[in-house]
């Protein structure tokens, strides 16, 4: 399938996997809506991608904020998406990539705030975007949703508890969405990577760069571009083919905690 001029909305585009996905789609001639909280990072990315395309719309947004102003009976995410300019409003491909982990603690010692941030972003943010964008895909009779899960959603690991649960939820929600869209041409894929070297571990360990580096020490992790290639493969299959789920790991990984470190 050609990606030329298709409107692709990517959440979490300011870093890592999301930024790499933006690049492969820009190179293929897509029109991009780039979503993340850090506007300056989005601007920087748009600048880098300008050699491939100028059709980029930046949407600085926290995907998990529900409350708008007290006078508005609508969520902040809803307001942002319903105010997209007309020529950007028919999203063809939604990539729910924004997500994070916070901490690596035993469940009975964990932080309520960390749990809420992960659940709000990884599950609720994905749900809000899906709820707001998929009806348009159904009514236009075209569309594809790609959700970023994780090996963590397949294999729980010690101290990963709530993060792993959010990624298991992403798999289950993807499966549910696929079932609910049966009979429409809208496709749903869940891409579940193992270790990818991004800012993920720095965010998890709140800027502790040394600890973050140790996660990838002695092995060759996936790159964000490796994952972007998989996402691109999923959405470029012919319309009768739906890649439901892809589990992709570095060769040096064989499970959430099974690594070949050398
Ligand atoms: P990064 O930390 O590099 O990127 C995360 C992105 O999510 C950033 O662009 C960040 O932007 C965005 N984001 C986080 N919270 C919000 C929010 N509330 N609203 C909008 N955007 C938000 O990590 P990765 O690229 O590694 O992670 C991308 C996805 O891939 C996540 O869902 C992660 O769980 C998943 N994943 C990662 C793996 C890995 O090993 N790295 C493996 C498997 C899955 P900003 O801060 O500007 O808002
Ligand atoms: C990110 C991969 O193993 O750090 O989802 O949880 S892991």
Class computed from helices, strands and strand pairing: alpha/beta
From the N-terminal CA to the C-terminal CA, the straight-line distance is 41 Å
Average the pLDDT over all residues and give the rounded result: 96
- CATH 2nd-level architecture: 3-Layer(aba) Sandwich
What is the CATH class designation?
Answer: Alpha Beta
| CATH fold name | Rossmann fold
What is the CA-based Rg, rounded?
18 Å
Spell out which ligands are present: NADPH dihydro-nicotinamide-adenine-dinucleotide phosphate, 2-hydroxyethylsulfonic acid
Strand content: 15-25%
Please tally the β strands and state the result.
9
What would you call the shape? Answer: globular
Note the main sheet.
7 strands, parallel
CATH-defined superfamily: NAD(P)-binding Rossmann-like Domain
Uncertain residue segments: none
Major sheet: arrangement of strands: 3-2-1-4-5-6-7
**What's the structural domain tally?**
1
Order of helices and strands: EHEHEHEHEHEHHHEEE
**How many DSSP H or I helices?**
8
Q: Roughly what percent helix?
A: 25-40%
What keyword list fits this structure?
262 residues, alpha/beta, Rossmann fold, seven-stranded parallel beta sheet, two-stranded antiparallel sheet, 8 helices, globular, binds NADPH dihydro-nicotinamide-adenine-dinucleotide phosphate, binds 2-hydroxyethylsulfonic acid
